[in-house]
Design brief:
The structure holds two protein chains of two kinds. By secondary structure, chain A is an alpha+beta fold. Chain A has 23 helices and 17 strands. In chain A, the strands form four sheets. A six-stranded mixed β-sheet of chain A has the order 2-1-6-3-4-5. Chain A has a six-stranded mixed β-sheet with strand order 8-7-12-9-10-11, with helices on both faces. In chain B, the strands form two sheets. Chain B has a five-stranded mixed β-sheet with strand order 2-1-7-4-5, with no helix packed on it. A two-stranded antiparallel sheet of chain B has the order 3-6. Chain B has one helix and seven strands; from the N terminus they run E-E-E-H-E-E-E-E. The chains are: A alpha+beta, B mainly beta.
Chain lengths: ~575, ~80
């Protein structure tokens, strides 16, 4: 088995660290990553706790594939109760932290309590230390990483920037400068605990069963199933490729989702990014290397990824690539999620243009746009309001019908009026509007399925959510289009027992339902599974989606069918039968 | 007849490794499906095709002068 069998628990209140056995029954039922971190949270958090209090816990979890040569297994899950939404929150971050934690001897790390003063956690194999972060507090995530790397040498670091310190609902956790656990204010949970950074170095290894056979199998899989047409877009272009796909199908959010095409999309598409490309970068064990190191003018960044291009460029009406790259760099350094930051900025622009509230910033205003990340991260000027996130800004000033969020989480870069199942995916995603729980745009807008019908869409979204829940628990990167059969084959080799695709589907369903149960316990129900009014009532006006909306009655039908197929009741609550079936 | 082609991302290898190229076809018309065959592009590798900016099915017929963009399948988002 490729579990280390140990969980490291660090209590920041009393400064004590302890190692405890991994709960193997939970590992069997939830695998690792997303599933296992949610299970620990579900069991350890009392219902109704305040996410920014010391009662919340931050859980970092690897999976059975972590630290091995399994392709695309470099991800780490980081989970907590979300300060942005009050829902369950699990994020996924690439880079090299996850294998390093495992080589230090741990499957996962649970951080609880709150330090009296700013600290960072240093893990060097079994040596665990809390050190003062007084001099790092207030620094950007980039300077923090450079400082800690210089001090401790070959460590891998997770850090927050000022946004996390100031406990913003859009604060992310950064690693290796440009990788993020981005959503739901996961960085604010670290900030609320006075935890500036976690640095880890592991010098141990993993015992793989039948290494020769395993190695040969992985090389074959890599050759035949990873380095193929289905996946190599990640290397040839990376996510900027999606700009052109979204633009040509009319689902590129533009000017706060007022439209689905952007007149300056050619400035920000994959071809434009390639002109600024300096190097490619990969996470641990990844042969696909989706990361693009770019340089434009005086700015260098790894990115911008599609979500940043959609939300911070098209959605803010900014067609100047250099400005978007600089905005991206600023968000990374301040520790801001670019999806929520871009979305909230666009909302402020529309409120201003409509005369509802004057934030002094309009679509396309580059200079003011570039000031936004610092203002938000420091809660200064207009940033004091924008730092609240879209839902709270709407509560304060109005515009709720075009505040583009679900459950309080800002919507990512796919327009649901041009991909109706995407609307259902946003509505039913466990952490609020999220494109990573299910991404049906791939087969609707970008595929053969009619994007403007509800036929079969509930089933489609459920299957994708369950498959992804298993995939993120195992733990694989979502850029590898691997089948459940392939996942089962790999896990059977690693865990030395036969795991079937059917078992993985059940695990995925169990994980997704446990996340729902967490939210249910926090008071979430059917009324929270809806999209902003704009999606139901305002027609798009340009491109292939001109004249389209997602009629409310069609959404209602889709949602109802979704609940039925899930085994949930009319109000979206999990039935007793379903709980029993999934051993919840 | 001549069609203008753009093969995106990893599909570029099935063409001339150029962003855009023109292709002479010895026929008065050709279906999108046959065009992919001619280029040896497996349909399983294709997400969707644009003909003159609009989504087109495999059975769409080209008569010459069109711009055809072939997009690869992608996962994730």
């Amino acid at each position: 088995m490729t579990y280390t069998g140990k969980i490291l628990r660090v209590n920041l209140t009393d400064g004590k660290a302890s190692s405890e056995p991994l709960n193997l029954e939970w590992a069997r039922n939830y695998l690792g990553g997303k599933g296992l971190s949610i299970k620990y949270l579900f069991e350890e958090l009392a219902p109704g706790i305040e996410p920014l209090s010391e009662d919340n816990k931050l859980i970092l979890m690897t999976g059975p594939t972590t630290g091995t040569i399994v392709p695309n297994s470099g991800k780490l899950a980081i989970a907590a109760k979300s300060p942005a939404t009050g829902t369950i929150l699990d994020c996924s971050i690439g880079g090299h932290f996850a294998p390093e934690l495992k080589y230090a001897g741990y499957d996962g790390l649970i951080v609880e309590g709150k330090a009296k003063m700013p600290v960072y956690l240093l893990i060097e194999d079994s040596r665990i230390e809390l050190r003062s972060a007084g001099e790092l507090w207030g620094k950007g995530s980039h300077e923090t990483e450079f400082t800690l790397s210089e001090k401790h040498g070959d460590v891998v670091i997770l850090t927050i920037g000022p946004a996390g310190e100031n406990m913003l609902p859009m604060a992310c956790i950064n690693s290796q400068l440009y990788r993020q656990a981005g959503r739901g204010g996961i960085g604010a949970v670290m900030g609320s605990k006075n935890l500036k950074a976690i640095a880890v170095r592991g010098t141990g290894g993993l015992k793989l069963p039948g290494i020769r056979k395993f190695s040969a199998a992985m090389n074959k899989i890599k050759r035949e199933d990873t380095m193929t047409d289905d996946n190599l877009w990640a290397y040839s272009d990376g996510t900027p490729m999606i700009v052109e796909l979204s633009q040509s199908t009319g689902i590129l959010p533009t000017r706060n989702f007022q439209d689905g095409t952007f007149s300056e999309s050619e400035n920000i598409n994959a071809e434009a990014i390639k002109k600024t490309l300096k190097a490619k970068k990969a996470c641990f064990a990844c042969p696909l290397a989706c990361g693009n190191y770019v340089e434009e003018g005086k700015t260098r960044v790894e990115g911008p990824e599609y979500e940043t291009l959609a939300l911070c460029s098209a959605n803010c009406g900014i067609g100047n690539l250099e400005a978007v790259i600089e905005f991206n760099r600023l968000c990374d350094d301040f520790g801001l999620d670019t999806i929520s930051t871009g979305n909230t900025t666009a909302f402020a622009m529309e409120l201003t243009e409509k005369g509802i509230h004057d934030f002094g910033i309009r679509f396309g205003e580059v200079e003011k746009f570039l000031q936004v990340p610092a203002l938000i991260a420091r809660r200064e000027g207009i940033g004091a309001d924008l730092a609240l996130g879209v839902a709270a800004v709407a509560d304060k000033y109005g515009g709720r019908e075009f505040a583009m969020q679900v459950k309080g989480l800002e919507m990512p870069g796919y327009e649901p009026r041009g991909s109706w199942a995407m609307g259902l995916a946003y509505g039913t995603a466990d952490r609020g509007a999220c494109h990573m729980r299910a991404w049906p745009a791939a087969v609707e807008a970008f595929g053969d399925l009619d994007p403007f019908t509800i036929e079969g869409k509930a089933r489609l979204v459920i299957d994708m959510q369950n498959d992804n829940a298993a995939k993120f628990s195992a733990i694989f990167c979502d850029f590898w289009a691997l089948s459940t059969e392939r996942m089962a084959e790999i896990l059977s080799l690693l865990l030395e027992r036969e795991i079937t695709p059917e078992e993985l589907t059940v695990i995925g369903e169990r994980v997704y339902n446990l996340a729902r149960l967490f939210n249910e316990r926090e008071g979430f129900e059917r009324k929270d599974d809806y999209l902003p009014e704009r999606i139901f009532t305002e027609k798009l006006s340009t491109g292939p989606t001109a004249g389209k909306l997602l009629p409310r009655e069609e959404y209602e039908k889709m949602l109802q069918e979704y609940y039925q197929l899930r085994g949930w009741d009319e109000n979206g609550k999990i039935t007793a039968e379903k709980k029993k079936e999934l051993s919840l | 007849m001549i069609v203008k082609l753009q093969l995106k991302g990893p599909l570029k290898k099935y063409g001339r490794e150029a962003d855009t190229f023109k292709m002479q076809i010895e026929s008065r018309e050709i279906s999108v499906s046959d065009l992919l065959d001619l280029l040896s592009i497996p349909t399983s590798s294709v997400s969707f095709i644009l003909v003159d900016g609009e989504k087109a099915g495999l059975d769409a017929v080209l008569k010459g002068g069109e711009t055809v963009i072939v997009n690869p399948r992608i996962a994730g988002g």
